[in-house]
């Protein structure tokens, strides 16, 4: 009977566990930041987590110590390249423990961690194969736990106390400034004055591994690994009287902490993390099915901003437990993308691309259920006169709890609106135009199509009883007038405003508004045109445009809009016509909504539901405060063009060499909220004096900076909140050839060179002057010589002229002699032909005397010598055998006279001249081929 009873109890526990697990699959959970081993550059397992005062996270990982500043992960290998098992940050020291080693890390002035061993410097030795699994601080003491010993380190005098154990020490527990630990098979001890003292000796303790001890409402709670939690009251252990404790017996808990708000977080071996509130009630059970990287939670840590960090068997997760956002993710794909939502009678309805689903709004553990008959795309959910209308791809439905009643078969119902003054009529926009629904006998039915307009009417607004505005993103905005019976279109006008993708039209506070990429426009009915609202348009810049979809929430009379980086929340101004605009930093990539089909509904208080492509978000607008803090400079690196780099001190002014002019700055703004996007802006005063564009990159590198003084300035932004500036000053020296000493040397060298040049120029000019004088003298002498030569030339010319004159005179005299002799010979010949007479003979003698007149020869010889000086002398010297008659013949030949011309001059016949010439050749020994006349002329 007892066995059967025990079986029933076990079955009951199992049933509760299964139901519990099943229901929690539909939880709305806080955002989870997931970090994989590839992201943090480490191994899979993460044994402990801690945080410094500047909010930097440190993780004991299989590969070493991990550091995360919100922008970058950095890994430091453990001192002896073994698995790092424990970490605890106290002040500016990061204490760690691993295999056969423990000590602390501390940042140097360059922002890099340096390790100091504590276990190697003391007069004790660690136990063989000892690993240090836990580090706890208490006042001035640091306590290091292995499985065999507890080392108590006094940080003031640097002394150690060691507590030995013959059994295994499983955990250390710090409760109200008292240190407890479990000695397996012995009980729970507490440390008093550096010595252990048995505190709880119980069969329950001896038979169970203790995970943690908490102070709860004045009593101690002792948490076991596999058998739930016990309360220690009046020296007795009794099961914790909480409902959750019945389920905890089905989990194997490995790690746990008490939260700052009094709640609890339990990390399990195979079921993720369980979070309780301060009353011990279940808040969340989050496992791998709901977004964790792994179900084995090796360590749990709550940071300064109440984020819950989980060191997993495969990765690191950060749960933003105090985030104003809760997420419902449809991991199984049963719901699809949420296009619309509504709440009626405490039931939440979700219209998706797969149909219509519902559940109780107050029971977040309840699974969504499908409403039969609504398969397919749901476009719109609207509550009109306390009835829920569903605009569907296949028509229009009225929803009553979990039932759907079809009232129209017209495909593609985009939206449904009331007609003012016609309480029994509704207008709906469909794929093919505008249609009218009518209430008859309290039942809504399809009445008619408004004929004359067949354009898809997703966005339409009824301005008055006969005027309707319709916006089509690819065709534009239409102003339509119809008859009073809403049966026929009378006029259709296209408005003069640009059309564009994802544009929309909406009526808000009696204003007709149109939004597209170029801004936010209001319709001016007096001017009959859309006019740009510059104030609201400033919140929808074109470079940040995503969707013109606007949503009017009637409960809060607010208008919601969406950009690439934010959600815009607009409310009417309280004391002026200027609207109140609030910007919520929620970028598109994180809100994961379907573009142009964004949807928002009010839940309660300040909570709103946002539909997403995989479920929905719950946002509390009043709790949505942007992160606060300061931007930090983490590391500064200077490098040369050859790649050689050096880290610079973060605390000192840097005086850099001229070739170390490539500077890289690494900075961060430490926050871990998944939905907060951190952006940075920087400038470098001294060269780039204006702020850069906002960027999410947490570093910047300046290359080949010239010499000079610089101040680097960086700031961070989360949403609209901008942090204070962080600055760093440095100086790049001038190269040696541009230094002050070099400049002085250049000046002195220049002066010396100028003087030297002046000396050489003077010397040069002096030499040049001497050369010029010499040249002038030479030119003068040359001129004088030229003048003399010219004078000589003139004289020569005069002489030549004289010679020519003499030659002319010689020629004239010679011709005169020739003519005279010819004349005398002709007279003589005539006389010889006459009879001989004494008188004639006397005349002939006179003629002969004149023919042989030596005076004529002398005259000729004188003239010839004047014309051809020294010719006869040269000829006499060369041919000494020549007679005077021979010389006379040569003179005539020199004048190039023929034998016939020579004959009268010699008073002989031409034949005799030829004979003389022949004899002359003989005397001169001239060759036969040589011309006598040419020889004499050329002599």
Concise synopsis of the structure shown:
The protein has 14 helices and 65 strands.
Gap from first CA to last CA: 174 Å
Number of strands: 65
Characterize the main sheet. 5 strands, mixed
Oligomer: single chain
Uncertain parts? 1-25
Provide the residue-averaged pLDDT.
Answer: 88
Percent in helix: 10-25%
In terms of structural class, how would the helical and strand content be classed?
alpha+beta
The tally of helices reads 14
What are its keywords?
939 residues
Describe this structure as you would to a colleague.
The protein is α+β, with helices and mostly antiparallel strands and 939 residues long. It is 23% helix and 40% strand. The protein is built from 14 helices and 65 strands. Strands 59, 61, 63, 64 and 65 form a five-stranded mixed β-sheet that branches. A hairpin with a 2-residue loop joins strand 46 (504-508) and strand 47 (511-516). Helix 7 runs antiparallel to helix 9 (854-867). 33% of the residues are buried.
């Amino acid at each position: 009977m007892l066995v059967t009873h025990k079986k029933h109890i076990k079955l009951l526990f199992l049933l509760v566990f299964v139901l519990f697990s099943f229901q929690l699959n539909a939880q709305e959970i806080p955002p989870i930041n997931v970090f994989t081993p590839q992201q943090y550059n480490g191994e899979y397992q993460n044994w402990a987590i801690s945080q410094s005062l500047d909010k930097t996270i440190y993780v004991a990982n299989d590969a070493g110590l991990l550091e995360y500043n919100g922008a970058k992960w950095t890994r430091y290998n453990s001192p002896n390249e073994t698995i790092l098992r424990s970490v605890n940050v106290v002040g500016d020291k990061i204490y760690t423990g691993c295999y056969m080693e423990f000590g602390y890390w501390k940042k140097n002035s360059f922002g890099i961690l340096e390790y100091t061993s504590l276990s190697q410097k003391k007069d004790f030795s660690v136990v063989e194969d000892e690993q240090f699994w836990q580090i706890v601080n208490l006042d001035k003491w640091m306590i290091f736990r292995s499985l065999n010993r507890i080392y108590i380190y006094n940080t003031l005098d640097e002394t150690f106390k060691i507590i030995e154990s013959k059994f295994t020490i499983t955990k250390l527990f710090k409760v109200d400034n008292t240190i407890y630990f479990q000695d397996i098979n012995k009980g729970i001890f507490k440390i008093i004055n550096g010595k252990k003292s048995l505190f709880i000796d119980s069969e329950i303790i001896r038979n169970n591994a203790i995970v943690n001890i908490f102070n709860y409402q004045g009593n101690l709670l002792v948490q076991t690994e596999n058998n739930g939690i016990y309360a220690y009251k009046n020296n007795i252990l009794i099961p914790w009287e909480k409902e959750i404790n019945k389920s905890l017996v089905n989990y194997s808990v490995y790690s746990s902490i008490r939260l700052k708000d009094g709640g609890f977080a339990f990390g399990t071996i195979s079921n993720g993390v369980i979070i309780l509130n301060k009353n011990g009630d279940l808040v969340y059970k989050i496992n791998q099915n709901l977004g964790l990287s792994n179900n084995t939670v090796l360590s749990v840590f709550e940071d300064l901003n109440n984020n819950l960090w989980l060191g997993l068997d495969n990765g690191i997760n950060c749960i933003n437990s105090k985030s104003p956002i809760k997420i419902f993710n449809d991991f199984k794909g049963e719901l699809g993308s949420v296009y619309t939502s509504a709440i009626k009678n405490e039931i939440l309805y979700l219209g998706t691309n797969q149909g219509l689903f519902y559940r109780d709004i107050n029971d977040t553990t309840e699974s969504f259920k499908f409403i039969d008959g609504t398969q397919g795309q749901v476009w719109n959910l609207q509550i009109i006169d306390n009835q829920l209308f569903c605009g569907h791809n296949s028509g229009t439905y009225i929803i009553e709890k979990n039932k759907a009643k079809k009232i129209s078969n017209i495909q593609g119902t985009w939206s449904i609106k009331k007609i003012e003054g016609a309480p029994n009529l509704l207008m709906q926009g469909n794929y093919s135009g505008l249609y009218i629904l009518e209430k008859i006998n309290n039942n809504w039915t399809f009445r008619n199509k408004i004929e004359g307009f067949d354009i898809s009417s997703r966005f339409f607004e009824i301005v008055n009883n006969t005027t309707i505005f319709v916006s089509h993103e690819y065709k534009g905005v239409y102003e339509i007038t119809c008859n009073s019976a809403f049966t026929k279109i009378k006029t259709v006008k296209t408005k003069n405003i640009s059309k564009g993708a994802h544009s929309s039209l909406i009526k808000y506070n009696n204003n007709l508004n149109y939004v597209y990429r170029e801004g936010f426009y209001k319709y001016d009915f007096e001017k009959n045109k859309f006019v740009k609202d510059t104030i609201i348009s400033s919140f929808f810049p074109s470079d940040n445009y995503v969707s013109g979809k606007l949503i009017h929430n009637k409960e809060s009379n607010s208008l919601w809009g969406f950009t690439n980086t934010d959600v815009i929340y607009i409310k009417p101004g309280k004391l002026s016509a200027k609207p109140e605009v609030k910007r919520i930093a929620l970028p598109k990539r994180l809100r994961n909504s379907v573009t142009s089909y964004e949807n928002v509904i009010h839940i309660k208080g300040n909570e709103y539901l946002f539909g997403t492509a995989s479920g929905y978000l719950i946002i509390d607008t009043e709790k949505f405060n942007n992160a606060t803090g300061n931007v930090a400079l983490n590391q500064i690196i200077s490098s040369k063009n050859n790649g050689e780099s050096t880290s610079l001190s973060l605390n000192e002014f840097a005086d850099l060499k001229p070739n170390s002019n490539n500077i890289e700055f690494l900075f961060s703004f430490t926050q871990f909220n998944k939905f907060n996007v951190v952006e940075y802006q920087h400038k470098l005063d001294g060269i780039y004096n204006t702020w850069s564009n906002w960027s999410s990159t947490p570093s910047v590198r300046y290359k080949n900076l010239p010499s000079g003084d610089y101040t680097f300035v960086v700031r961070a932004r989360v949403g609209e909140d901008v942090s204070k500036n962080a600055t760093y000053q440095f100086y790049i020296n001038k190269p040696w050839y541009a230094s002050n000493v070099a400049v002085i040397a250049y000046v002195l060298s220049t002066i010396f060179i100028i003087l030297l040049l002046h000396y050489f120029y003077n010397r040069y000019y002096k030499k040049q002057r001497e050369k010029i004088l010499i040249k002038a003298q030479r030119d003068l002498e040359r001129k004088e010589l030229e003048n003399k030569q010219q004078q000589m030339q003139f004289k020569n010319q005069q002489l030549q002229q004289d010679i020519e004159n003499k030659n002319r005179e010689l020629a004239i005299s010679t011709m005169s002699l020739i003519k005279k002799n010819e004349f005398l010979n002709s007279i003589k010949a005539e006389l010889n032909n006459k009879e001989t007479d004494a008188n004639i003979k006397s005349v002939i003698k006179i003629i002969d005397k004149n023919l042989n007149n030596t005076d004529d020869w002398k005259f000729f010889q004188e003239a010839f010598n004047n014309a051809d000086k020294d010719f006869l002398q040269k000829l006499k010297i060369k041919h000494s055998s020549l007679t005077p008659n021979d010389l006379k013949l040569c003179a005539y030949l020199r004048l190039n006279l023929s034998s016939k011309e020579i004959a009268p001059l010699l008073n002989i016949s031409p034949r005799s001249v030829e004979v003389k010439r022949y004899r002359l050749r003989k005397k001169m020994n001239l060759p036969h081929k040589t011309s006598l006349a040419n020889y004499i002329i050329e002599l």
